[in-house]
User: Fold Dihydroorotate dehydrogenase-like protein from Rubellicoccus peritrichatus.
Amino acid sequence: MNLKTNYLGLELPHPFIIGASPLGSTLDRVRRAEDAGAAAITVHSLFEEQIQHHENGLHVHVHTYEESFSEARTYFPQTVVGDHYGPEEYLEHLRNAKEAVDIPIIGSLNGTHLGSWTQYATLFSEIGVDAMELNLYYQPNTDEETATEIEKRFTTIVSHVRSAVEIPIAVKLSPFFSSLPNFVRQLEKAGANGVVLFNRFYQPDIDLDELETKPTLKLSDSNELLLRLRWLAILFGRYDWLSLACTGGVHTRDDALKAIMAGADCIQLVSVLLQHGVERIRPLLEGITDWMEENEYESLEQMKGSMSYHNSPNPEAIERANYLQILKSWEPNGKVVIDT
Assistant:
């Protein structure tokens, strides 16, 4: 069975790669991921705040930014997110990871302002990483900033990074854009080679005893995949050479198959591996291989995007009909009855 796929111009033996997380935070974990069968590894992010405080010579504790981190923060060892793991240590880790394994290593920068991104992107490239992921994690909290201004800031970041490096660039996005297809088009024009759908926002809760907000963390489950499937299906086939990665919600064989059919070039795994170990990669591979053989698929490319809007004669009509059918199917007794 041919499971080969192309992500960001990287020829991968199969679509399962490690997403930015603690799973790539030490050399031992990087080696274990390769041994477990990962096709590539996205190393945990270097955060904008780490760069700023390194440059300013300030000493801060990680809890200052605990509500800004978007990568399963409580699973990070202290040496990864604490005061002693700054930009220089991160770069050294990238360098060592490249030397330790044969699979592609993808560096990750997490932030929202231009700042030193170009400088560190250049350093990533000099180290020899195979690609880089720009994690544009941002939640606007003022009514003075327009959607156009936010999108312009992001495309400017991508454009500046592209001007500094030749390695492939993926942009990790949230789903909260008024016209995601158009914004992705802007990112492509700015120089992005791919987008990652989607970032997971960790919303703070309210502690009623202490009357204060508190950070919360919950790993993804398969229910989160539905949002990704919709937008993968919408974006697939719209762009000239843009790769699509799915992250969040893939836990089973069926989840993976659906993501690929919707249009994903690769699948970033994090939560399922944090829960069950990186050894879960091989059962996922075996599962999709068996299903494809049973259903007479010869390759991943044959299946990719087969359930996308690109392959629908009238996707807008289908979307509207599905919406109306779901609303009509809900009965007062709480049962769902689908009319056929």
Q: What stands out?
A: Confidence is low (pLDDT under 50) at residues 58-84. Residues 208 and 215 are 14 Å apart (CA to CA).
